Fold:
Amino acid sequence: MHIDVNTGPTIPGRPSLFTDRLKRSLEQNGLTADEAEAMYETWKVSYFRTPGFKVFWILPRTLVDELLPIRISPQPKNLERVMVGRSEFLRPSFEQKLLNAQESDALYSFKDDRYIHAYEERVAQLSDPSYSNELASLPELAHGNEWEVNLFPNPTIDVITVEINSVYESPTGPMKLQVIDLNGKIVTNMNMNLVNGYGIQTIDLARLPNGTFFIQMNDGQFTRQFVKSSP
Structure:
């Protein structure tokens, strides 16, 4: 199961698409609904409340038994065991940010991040001459693009999540977001808070009609299109 986990604030009372998919996968692999819920509650902060690109997978039962052999006496009639694996990937824009931090002697700003040693190793690798053109050749970093912007899901039914990542700088503070219709009318105004150049915001679109809209940041710093449709 692959999930790009850019989950930030969610609308109260509305379950996340990502958490639903994870729970369903756990149940399909043998857990009861209560057990799947308990497992999610145990790991939800690191799984779904931290930014990043993450891939989850359910380990095959044979591998779980091989890695963690277990004996129970008396032997139960049924024994279900589910283990979730997770990998976290550094996006090119974040790697560029690390390189910029190193060049300005600001890599220490990531010292409290649990992956700081991995960051240092990756920066050393990217600083090697053989890697000098690796990031520059990527579309999201080419042509002077300063912002990596993701809208999901798109098309959407009633909510859309906006994820913003600054490629070259690490601004912290409020940023104005606007939803604009095809006539240029602003239909939604809100602020997104950036921390070290990263921000994520879920927008409730339930009151808007179906159609094509635009997300605009800071009065035109960037504009992205999305479509709202019926179920």
The longest strand covers residues 173-181.
